[in-house]
Specification:
It is a single chain. By secondary structure, the chain is of the alpha+beta class. The protein has a single domain, classed as Jelly Rolls (Sandwich). The chain is built from 2 helices and 10 strands; from the N terminus they run H-H-E-E-E-E-E-E-E-E-E-E. The chain has a 5-stranded antiparallel β-sheet, covered by helices on one side. A hairpin with a 5-residue loop joins strand 4 and strand 5. The longest helix is centred in the first third of the chain and has 17 residues. The protein is globular, with a radius of gyration of 16 Å. The protein starts with a helix and ends in a 14-residue tail after the last strand. It binds fe (ii) ion. The site of fe (ii) ion (FE2) has 5 residues, from strand 7.
């Protein structure tokens, strides 16, 4: 088995779930252990998709479903880097591959609602149904952290929002850092 076979198998399993008509609740129930299994092994992500940027976090597209029903993205945080407070508008699962992350939760009005730490192998859930607004930071001051995210859309093209401290929102489309994709078939 080549290392990317892990990612290929994960993508195949999520595709089968969606082909089977799985709704968000079933994706969270059946997809979460699939993502947990993927991030339990840190031996498959090509280095090109784990490179930090000196100034801000990176998001690398690893795969987008041809029908844009889901996308898989690697997020890479350098020491001390953080996202803005943002929403997703679709279901999402966040699996920690490397390092450690701090997730600060906010309510739909952008007000603080809790925080928790995430370690390798753990999977977090987001969606408008289970809590959709958060800020994610690298917990480590001296190392890179990497997480693998799965969303119920082509997330880099989704029109969503960044929240200001006063709760006001502005439109946000994240895009992707990469123009090339990993070859799942080597
Ligand atoms: Fe997020």
């Amino acid at each position: 088995m080549t290392q990317l076979a892990r990612l290929r198998g994960f993508i195949q399993s999520v595709t089968r779930l969606l082909d089977d008509g799985a709704d968000e609740a079933r994706i969270f129930r059946d997809g979460r252990p699939l993502l947990a299994d993927l991030v339990r092994h840190d031996d498959w992500l090509p280095d090109a998709y784990a490179q930090p940027h000196p100034d801000h976090y990176q998001q690398y597209l690893l795969h987008c479903d041809p029908l844009e029903r889901f996308s898989v993205v690697s997020f890479v945080w350098g020491p001390g880097q953080t996202t803005p407070v943002h929403d997703h508008t679709v279901w999402g699962m966040v699996g920690i591959l490397r390092g450690a992350e701090l997730c600060e939760e906010f309510d739909a009005h952008g007000q603080p609602a809790g925080r928790h730490e995430l370690r390798p192998g753990q999977v977090d859930l987001v969606s408008p149904n289970v809590g959709d607004v958060h800020r994610v930071s690298n917990l480590l001051a001296d190392a890179v952290s990497v997480s693998i995210h799965v969303y119920g859309a082509n997330i880099g093209r989704v029109e969503r929002h960044v929240f200001q401290p006063d709760g006001t929102r502005r439109p946000f489309v994240s895009g992707y850092a990469n123009e090339l994709l990993p070859n799942l078939w080597v």
